[in-house]
Amino acid sequence: MRLGFSSLIAAALLVGPAYASNGDGKPATAATPPCASLQPPPLPNVKYLNVKAAPQTGRCHVDIALTHGATGDHVVVTVLLPDAAKWNGRFLGLGGGGYVDAAQTSDLEDAVSRGYAAATTDAGVGTAGTGDWLLRPGTDEVDANALLDFASLSTHEMSVIAKALVSSYYGGARAFKSYWSGCSNGGRQGLVEAQRYPTDYDGILAGSPALSWHRFTPAGLYGYVVKSRLGYKGPACELTQMRAEAVKACDALDGLADGIIAAPHQCRFDPASVVGKPFRCDAPGIGSGTPGDFVFSKEAARIADVAWHGGSYRGQPLWHAHGYDADLNGVTYPSPLSQAWVARAVERTPSFDATTLDDAAFFDMVLKSQQLYADVIGSAEPNLAPAFRHGTKILSWHGLADYAVPYLGTVDYRARVAASVAAAAGLDVDDSLRVFVAPGVGHCGGGIGPKPDDPLQALVDWVEGGKPPERLAATYQGAQAGKRESLCRLPQMPTYARNGAVMCVDSAFVKSFKPLPPLHA
Asked: Three-state DSSP class for 271?
């Protein structure tokens, strides 16, 4: 029997910690078992297929395969436990990116090298990252169980399993703190933990979180659809040069002309104003193209306008727009993430071509995604009061030049959380959730701006030391590589003094930000 999404979600929310407790939230004292004898705890509707626990140099490595009832899924959980003498007394759950929930091996290794007991899960969808698993093989039926595993359930079960193993391996009398770290889909995974399983983690680091998946993912194809509709054949560097024109116009609005737009909300550059203006391509750049002299086309202006203002239909924005210094070639690239979602999850036709849609049909497609999947993988539930009351601290950051996940989606989420927790519990969002912005930084890094140095340590200091971060230490990339700066937290935005010193100033734009309402027919 195949369960519907609502039934699956309700059942998943019943899964809770299964390891012993003293009643005070701390694991019960137990004899410490050797690595090879570690066993995961019993969980509702979970059957363990295989448990491999083996000592390695400096650690215990545990791989667990499990399945749920008769679903036929095959989920792998990996847990690395450093030797007791090297353990820092903390557990760290790690997330993935795109259609992958699992962290990279290098991320696990880095965590263990810093003393963390670390874990991740492939959620039963593997690490290919194609999204092929969205449809059951040989059918046009969405695999509801696989989607639930990916969206939320596997991350939670991994957390419960790993924490039980940590408790067993190091001796249950020793209390420990639990942290999450992830970016993009990994950031989404962490915030879903706070939304659905508010006691799983003491601290959550969520970089460039892919929130409102049901909406931003299909809407992310609109720039590419417009480019295709226009039959755009411009030189490869035209969109790069168009972005450079925006930077030239808006760079100094933050007080410092440094090639970075730190005040994108103040930028009013109109790409139509440079149509007919000459520019030069000194190198082919992305895709095909020939060096030479050109003039900006009206087609390129239209493409840039869509990227910077977003698509809409009958007054309803599809989703938030991108910052003015986001890579326009990246914004309008046919994202495999979006293509797989639209073709497989929404239209259930692997060969589906979104470029065949006019604006009305494209809107209907995004609306359909919202109707089908907002409750499954929307990942944007604003009521974090249960997590906040538990004591969970959430540190998030987003690059203002992100070409994959619009930074305004994170601004939107913070605004909705602030309103929700204030109304539901009289809580101040800044006591438990802090969001920092990184000017000139792309998706989870890249770009030329200051990227956070060690946001995880800042989170630990907040959780364990009671020191909420006012700013976030960061280091420039690109031409200014090595230059240090501190990032501002919302509702503040950066402005710069004449000597280049950054000042964090309350932003009326952020403080009065109006979140987008759901789409409606």
From this structure: helix
Question: Is the pLDDT score of 220 beyond 60?
Answer: yes
Residue 440 near residue 450, CB atoms below 8 Å = yes
Q: Per the residue annotation, which of 101, 149, 402, 412 is the catalytic one? A: 402
Tokens of 50: 């295989």
| Chain CA centroid to CA 233, Å | 32
CB 228, CB 295: distance < 8 Å:
no
Contacts with 302 (C-beta within 8 Å, 6 or more apart), sequence order = 226, 230, 271
Identify any residues that bridge with 104 across adjacent strands, giving them in sequence order.
none
Give the whole-angstrom CA distance, residue 515 versus residue 430. Answer: 18
> Across all residues in the chain, what is the average pLDDT?
93
- What is the rounded distance in angstroms from the CA atom of residue 409 to the CA atom of residue 366? 16
Q: How far is CA 82 from CA 27, 34, 96, 224, in A?
A: 19, 13, 21, 46
Tens of pLDDT, residue by residue over 361-397, are: 999 999 999 999 999 999 999 999 999 999 999 999 9
**H helix runs in 378-433, sequence order:** 385-390, 407-425
Are the beta carbons of 154 and 179 closer than 8 angstroms?
Answer: no
Strand partners, 50: 65
Is the predicted pLDDT of residue 23 greater than 90, yes or no?
Answer: no
pLDDT in tens, 157-183: 999 999 999 999 998 767 899 999 999
Which of 184, 212, 338, 432 is flagged as catalytic? Answer: 184
What's residue 73's pLDDT? 97
Tell me which of 25-34, 206-215, 404-413 is least confident. 25-34
Q: What crossing angle do the helices spanning 298-309 and 222-229 adopt, rounded to 10°? A: 160
- pLDDT confidence of residue 20: 36
Catalytic residue among 68, 214, 322, 443: 443
Q: By CB neighbour count within 10 A (0-12 exposed, 13-18 middle, 19+ buried), where does 1 fall?
A: exposed
* Element containing residue 66 per DSSP (H, E): strand 59-68
Distance (Å, rounded) from C-alpha 319 to C-alpha 421?
24
Residue type, 76: V
Dist CA 179 CA 184 (whole Å): 17
- Token readout for 242 is 């168009």
Neighbours of 63 (CB within 10 A): 13
Name the burial class of residue 117, with classes exposed (0-12), middle (13-18) and buried (19+) by CB atoms within 10 angstroms of its CB.
Answer: buried
Told to judge if 443 belongs to the known catalytic residues of this protein, a careful annotator would answer yes
List beta partners, residue 184: none
225's enclosing H/E stretch is: helix 222-229
DSSP bridge partners of 48: 66
Dihedral, CA atoms, 437, 439, 442, 448, nearest 10 degrees? -140
Residue 173 tokens, joined: 């009398």
**Where does the pLDDT of residue 2 fall: very low under 50, low under 70, confident under 90, or very high at 90 and above?**
very low
